[in-house]
Structure formats: C-alpha cells, structure tokens
Amino acid sequence: MSRNWKTICQLNDIPAQGARVLKREDGDDIAIFRTIDDQVFALVDKCPHKGGPLSQGIVSGRTVTCPLHNWNIDLATGQACAPDEGCSGHIPVKLEAGAIFLALD
Fold this sequence. Notes:
Blueprint: E1 5-10, E2 18-22, E3 30-34, E4 40-44, E5 58-60, E6 63-65, E7 72-74, E8 93-96, E9 99-103
C-alpha cells in the first residue's frame, strides 16, 4: 500500500521535547512531537482517558504526559503506559532532510 505523504513542517519548527498541532477540519487534530534526540512522532491530539490535549503535555524520552490527569502515552504507538489502558491513535511520520512528513491517507 502506498502512502500519501504530506510535508508538514521543518524539524526546527518544533522545539526539542515539544509539540506542534496540525489542525484539521475533517478529522481529529494531530500532535507532532520532537524528542530531545530529534526523533519525531505523531499522535491524535487526544488522550484516550478524557480527551486531554496531548500536544500540551510534557515530553520525556519516548512518552508524553497528558496535562489533565498525568497519563503517560507511548509516542511510538499511542498506547497508554501500564497500568492505564487505551490508545490515542498513531499517525505514520518520517523525517527527511530536516522536513517532517505525515502519511495522511
């Protein structure tokens, strides 16, 4: 299956251990995260617990902590870390020559 990759922004547009939100009219907003070591991840910008904005959470290693109730979400999968359960939804992302692309099929 081929993916429909869309250029979103440059890596330097997102602060290290920060996030940027891609607003969408026809779907959930997407939070794009940058780790301290410049890895990039994309999740639906809703915590699986109560829908808190993950983009406003604290990035630590490969997780983000929801700002509402402190749930930790794995950036690579969107899965809540145990003992919590649920998934926010993961969007395929790639980084090429400093540009961030999302697969928005």
